[in-house]
Amino acid sequence: MSEGAAGTDATETGNAPAKSSLPAGDRTELAAARLRLLAEARRRIAIYQPTLSDDIYGSPAELAELRRLATSGRGAEIRLILHAPADALREGHRLVALAQRLPSMVLVRVPLEELDLAYASSYLLTDQGGYLFQPDARRADGRASLADRAAQAPLMQHFNDVWERSARATAWQPLDL
User: Fold this and answer.
1) Which one of 16, 25, 45, 49 has the lowest number of neighbouring Cβ atoms within 10 Å?
2) Torsion over CA: 64, 65, 66, 67 (sign)
3) pTM of this prediction?
4) What is the pLDDT of residues 87-109, one digit of tens each?
């Protein structure tokens, strides 16, 4: 369902036309869009994901891109909002290990307010203006674009608002033994 995600072409800037929308109508397309957005990001991403299953941000390719982002140098930051980070820890999600190894680069928070915990959508936002939005995180359809800051803006505002109202996810903190 990528119909609402049409991007602008680059003819106005003198570059060759480029279609920035990405297909995101099934699990395979969602995974490809996620990977492409992660690869296009330079230093910062924001992820709102109510629950974290193994097929989301758990593939070797996605983890490699997340690791690249987290270690990209000054200004690198991965912000992640999860409703139940303890579930991902208990299920051994691979992203947990990365967050524990790089806790100052991979920041995880948990919403506290009922309104935020009832939010059922998920999204990935990149520093390049890209986004992947799923209206219902449990369903395999959404819309995505490599660069559409106008469509990304309300999602980034929502993310920042929830981030400010959320608490640090202590379940993922590394143990200092």
Assistant:
1) 16
2) positive
3) 0.86
4) 999 999 999 999 999 999 999 99
